[in-house]
Amino acid sequence: MSIMIWVIISALFIIVLLSLLRVKFYQNKLEVELYTKSQLLNKISKMKQEKYQFQTKEKDSSEYHLDLRRAKQTLTEDLDALVDDEKIRHYRIFTTSQIAPKNTIYPFISQFDILVVTNIGLILLNLKALKAKTFYHFEGRLPLKDESDIHQIVGHYIAYQYHNQFQSELRTHYTFSENIHENEVTYQFNKYDSYEMAEKATQNLQMHFESLVDVPVSTIGVIYCAKQNGERIDGDATPYSQVYTCENNQDFQNALQQFVATTHTNLSDASYEQVINNIEHKN
Predict the structure, then answer these.
(1) Where on the tree of life does the source sit, at the highest rank (predicted)?
(2) I want to staple 219 with a disulfide (CB 3.0 to 4.6 A). Which of 27, 71, 114, 122 is the partner?
(3) pTM for the complete prediction?
(4) Nearest residue to 259 (alpha-carbon basis) of 53, 120, 158
């Protein structure tokens, strides 16, 4: 008789647990639906105010090169200031187009725009132009029970739904943008997660040059939003990581100051020239 009671209690416990999990799942789903509906209403209101003149221009080549020139100019000013303050001795700025595709380091930096070499380490820069609200580096999991921020709930829920289609147990992060049309909200996923790509590239670059000069070569990645026509929502970025996200020059200066304060590198003039020669090498 007691066994039967335990079986009934266990069954009831499992049913209650499954019901609670189901309620939580549908609660997340409902919050996302309410969020998307509110976004649609906001968009429709804006479209009426703007007389339905909603435009999404693609970034053309001339616009990109203008952003690149501005970024190099800003970099030069900020690095010159560090030289004046005797925080660094030397630096060189390379655009990706200056590095030969046959060069050993090219696969590490081909998705980036600028590589900076200093005597205290390397900086890898990725220019971004946000044209819509962008969710950065969200793990494909359901929102946590104590998660209250609507953007975090939406970001994780959408990433989870996308990840779930692959039936993979791998822990994966995604970057995606929110596109609001007249009667729907869609989410466009990037081919690569920018944060993860920058983290892997900085690690590979650091290992390459450390094996070359046989001393520590601190390396950071910077995701720089040169143009921002949409909100950036940061997800599961690792604290104290090698990757920084910047929206303006002040953010970038803060990243540089953090780099100066935490670097483990002080290349001799000979090692610095060795790194430069390796980058300029054609093969």
Answers:
(1) Bacteria
(2) 122
(3) 0.74
(4) 120
